[in-house]
Amino acid sequence: MENLYEQLIQKKEKLAVLGLGYVGLPIALEFARKISVIGFDINARRVEMMKQGIDPSSELDKKEFEGCDILFTHKIEDLKTAKFFIVAVPTPVDEHNVPDLKPVLSASDTIGKVLKKGDYVVFESTVYPGCTEEDCLPVMESISGLKNITDFKLGYSPERINPGDKEHTLSKIVKVVSGCDAEALDVIAKTYEIVVKAGVHRASSIKVAEAAKIIENTQRDVNIALMNELSRIFDKIGINTYDVLEAASTKWNFLKFYPGLVGGHCIGVDPYYLTYKANALGYESEVILSGRRINDDMGPYVARRTVQLLTKAHKDVSNSRILILGATFKENVTDIRNSKVADIVNELKNYTVTVEVSDPHADSEELNHEYGFGLVKQPTGMYDAIIVAVNHKEYLSLDENYFKTIMNGGGIIVDVKGIFRNKIKQFTYWGL
Questions:
Q1: Residue 387 β-bridge partners
Q2: Whole-prediction pTM value?
Q3: Architecture of domain 297-431 in CATH?
Q4: Which of 104, 187, 310, 407 has its CA 20 to 30 A from that of 288?
């Protein structure tokens, strides 16, 4: 008897991906080059864009949609023909940094309505260890009336998509996979091997796979927090952090991390899922949360240092004009989710300065809806300070002559990512 993997390969059965954002869409299209796929998203407008070969996240080119056997839909009934489900919906935190499971539970509800005997369900959304089996599974079982292992199979395979990264793509990154039993693990592993050329790592359990994902970003978060704390110390000493890191990294085992704004929907969010679970089990995290506190304060810190530098330059702070270059959460992407640039804007507004924000990649309406400020199409000059918050490729070619055209005398360049280090001579320069 053919197993599900063989049926997928022969296109006798279909695979469905729920959630077609920056994670789900690349997965759906990669599979659709090999097998028959249903791409499901609750946002009908986004679905229409994808039907026309347009990635709403602006990560994929139109040619990526070519030669794909895929049905894009927002209708639940279209999912009934699928046999293998992949859940790739977002898992954010709320305003209190508490995990918001609404998207992943809603996806569980949707799958429960279409689940059949023999189906497979694999979650890719980043969650705390135990969430897949303790929170999502009961929803599916309750609605479908089916039982895990006996009627259908559950698995977890954490996403490793890096927005804006054209080198470390889905097929080139080893995929961690897990299943509810040995049979599930084997079928899930073989299914992902259809598209992941780098191979798969078979985790010993679903909880281990969930934990592996969450510590990847937690480790980065803690290391960046250390760099951010060091940058504050070195600022007081009067030395440049990047000069220090350049010297220290000549040692073979020095880990290269850099200070900066830690936003987005991974590094700035995932650690809170782990500390939430730890707290529920009676353990209060110390190292992880201290790192989070440092990183969450970096936006306000940059704003405060800018105001201090304006005061030191004898500028009238309340009448000063400040330009912020960059509004997305990282360079060369359109994604503004959890952008810490908003923290800089909000802190500066406390000092009643005039703030203008420019970004070649972000959407002004989206920023206005999410954070209450939009973009200027072009810098209008003259500014008392310019904060280069995101190192978009468009900014790398700027030089002091450009800044002179839009900057008042005695102006200040605040360089969050250090891209103009040793290049600014006629203005006050400050960087992390």
A1: 324, 414
A2: 0.91
A3: 3-Layer(aba) Sandwich (3.40)
A4: 104
